[in-house]
Amino acid sequence: MSVRHLTQFHGLPVFDLPGADEAGELPAADSVAWRVRFTWGGSEDFDRIWERFLGTVDTTKVTALVLGCWGEEMYEDTLGPVLRRVVDAKERFPALKAFFLADVTFEENEISWIQQTDLAPLLNAYPGLEELGARGGHREFTPVAHASLRTLRLESGGMSAAVVRGISESELPSLERLELWLGSEEYGGDTTVDDLAVLLSGVRFPALRHLGLQDSELQDGIAGAVAHAPVVPMLETLSLSMGVLTDAGGEALLAGQPLTHLKKLDLHHHFLTDAMMQRLGEALEPAGVEVDLSEQETPNEYGGDLWHYVAVAE
Amino acid sequence: VPSRTIDSSARFTVVGNPGSRRVAMFAAAVRAAGCPEPEVLAWRDVLRGEYALTAGTLLRVDSPGEDDEVDRLLRGSDRDATSGSASAWNSARVEGGATWYRRFTAALRTLAAAAAATEGCTLLGDPEETAVMFDKRRTHALLATAGIPVPPALDMRGVPAGWDDLRTRLEESGMRRVFVKPAHGSSASGVVALEFGADGRARATTSAELIRLGDGRVQLVNSLRVRRYTEQADLRALLDALAREPLHVERWLPKAAQHGRAADLRVVVTAGRATHAVLRTSRHPMTNLHLGGARGDLDLVREAAGPGWPALLETCERVAACFPGSPMVGVDVLPAVGWRSHAVGEVNAFGDLLPRLTGLPGGPAEGLDTYAAFVAAVLRTRAAARAAEGPHP
User: Are A155 and A122 contacting, i.e. CB atoms less than 8 angstroms apart?
Assistant: First the structure.
């Protein structure tokens, strides 16, 4: 699978700020999620586009904002200054509830080459923010205390354990949905199962209803930990998708605590056998759990070695 | 359905590979137009100079591709070309483009001379224009001069000698994501999507497979699997091998996506009008169908592009106008992320092998496939020319 551009965000359709030379009426400021992004071959750099956005849209009513491409060269620490513009403009966005950083796909830059930046300054600048998403190589996350954040979604082809630890040390009393793509070790994903202990303990985020620990090469180990994790009974939905989940992980889930209270268990992109898929379905579906077992993968073979792959890495 | 010109006196000849899909589709289109069965002139005979043209014939030239013997005649060493069995020939190899181009264009020019010397014989396609289309550098320059949007190209003066040179050039030009293409390649042969990240890391995405021979030489072979090279040694071997022949290097403009797959369009322009369009999508940077590309949903594109859609078709017609002696061109269009703008990637002289694709609704080829549209356009032109000449006996 590949990462797609957002079409919906925070319950709103994503709308691209038109180019400087494009006519047409703008939608009401609070009716869409605004995507601001650099256009190849266009006449403006990101700063100009951003200033035009601030000048033409009533940002005081904007509730959802998405930043896409920010230049022809989206490498090294170029994203930090872009985020700083949003941080500095906090007075202009009193109604902002949702923000996504780096809605960029592989045609624009590889996810592993997007150098993500610390999101703590943004959270501190926008205490009313309820949803935060970001894509790329996440390397740091300064622990924050934020009373409003309900959804945190970090997409990555390789997330540093420091990010998992930073989130684990944060005070997020309203957090209902936490989604982390842990990624491949080759692209900086060095989170171990032990690093997930706090998240799995259930003590940190009392409002948590959805947990996604996804896209991991250690998906079996994560499944093994989840099978006995105190956080699970408080969840309504759980995702262990996109990773290297094999029958060992499936077996661990079947042998662990009951999962029948879940509304949904998302395991899409997996390496489970037909027999294991059937067992999981039989164990959970009669209880009303929706089990997503789509995208059954087969390992690639290179010179006699089998290679299991996560859904999003490079 | 547009009115068709029935002209049973029009006799077609097609230069192609007998038994190929292209020849079969063209013959079917000719028969459907009420014309006599076309004569088939085999590329292998053309390349050997063993042919005579029939007087009064309309001569269509189709692709010499997908035939091992013809490929060997065009790309093989002189020894390959004159002796040896076809079974030993590896048509998948990437190199040989320069030789292919030289022989192919020479054969076209000879064919054109033969057509000119044959009474009433009309060659449907200017060989010099076809030659431009088979040189990506010249095509790019021609389109850029005509003001058609094209991706910026790397200045190739003092041709890069290989990986180190290319890398330095790209760095100096500030181009960090490019397509490297053999100047005379087709069907994504040898095409590399090359990108540079932080800390000098580089990544090449290509269907070319790097084969290291026992004596240390490197051979590139086209495969059906798109693969990635990130090791310096591999990148060097890959680009050094490619740079032994002329290259065209241009910026990799991020393409729009449909359902998460990168998308581009092939638009066929027949007699100056954009008649057919197909959307191709892939999870790879190259969208060719044999590399896992698939046809996408054109209606969604029209919707997404809005006013950008007629503008895109107009661009394709402007491209065709750069090739006024070619009754059909296949234009590859790269829609930008968001579908609002576009650039032209390539122009294909034989870009109309699109089975079962009928013409754009409301256009002059609605209901017709590409070959039928070509035949209809040729017959219309012929009828108009005859009418201008006055009544025929």
Answer: no
